[in-house]
Amino acid sequence: MSLSAGAGGYALCAALAYLLGSIPFGLLLTRLAGLGDIRSIGSGNIGATNVLRTGNKGLAALTLLLDGGKGAVAVLLARAWGAELATVAALAAVVGHMFPPWLGFNGGKGVATSAGALLALAWPVGLASGATWLVVAAVTRYSSLAAIVAAVLAPLYAWLVTGAGSISAATFAIALLVLVRHRDNALRLIRGEESRIALRRNH
Predict the structure, then answer these.
(1) 3-state helix/strand/coil string of 94-129
(2) C-alpha atoms less than 13 angstroms from C-alpha of 189 in its C-beta half-sphere
(3) CA terminus-to-terminus distance, the chain
């Protein structure tokens, strides 16, 4: 394969994974359920944690599943053409979720999509990162803190499992994006103003 054809393959893979990742399931599901625009409540985010603030746990769980699923599907489809393309797809799907063209490039924070992508890319890394999120969230009830801790540790997990390589590099890039998207949450945590995980609808 020539260099130009290879570059074209990478670009096409990234574009398709980006578009798949950009599907705003949280927004679509809440609208279909007659709950209005999820961006008008709570944090204004389109992810599962904010969907949970509607009081509809089933819808929040479905959002989590679909957001994670699109990351996993992007990686699994790309893997058929090579391991390197799978890492490109993982990163592109997360970028798509965070910066979807349909929402003015202002999407979610990428936690579920990152988890799905990492599970498909290297399941021990995804499993360890997901377990980290669950433990921190269960103890503190801060979804944002759980995401930050999981993002900080994910590259370490990747390095321990896969060594230095494309998977570790992709995991580091994904973790950095998640941390950047949580910068405001980090400031609110420091000030003691961050909202905890809500199990009932906020009025």
Answers:
(1) HHHHHCCHHHCCCCCCCHHHHHHHHHHHCHHHHHHH
(2) 16
(3) 58
Number of H helices, E strands in the chain: 10, 0
CA 91/CA 84 separation, integer angstroms: 11
Could you read off the pLDDT of 40-73 as tens digits, one per residue? Answer: 887 788 888 889 888 889 999 999 999 999 999 9
> Is 137 in contact with 48 (CB distance < 8 Å)?
no
SS3 72: helix
Locate the domains of the chain by residue range.
3-191
Residue type at 176? L
Question: In whole angstroms, what is the distance from residue 129 CA to residue 17 CA?
Answer: 22
State the burial class of residue 161 (Cβ atoms within 10 Å of its Cβ: 0-12, 13-18, 19+).
middle
- Predicted TM-score (pTM) of the model is 0.90
Each residue of 129-149: pLDDT tens digit? 999 999 999 999 999 999 999
CA 14-17-21 angle, to 5 degrees, is 135
* Residues in contact with 128: Cβ distance below 8 Å, sequence separation at least 6, in sequence order: 153, 154, 157, 161
Mean pLDDT of the chain: 90
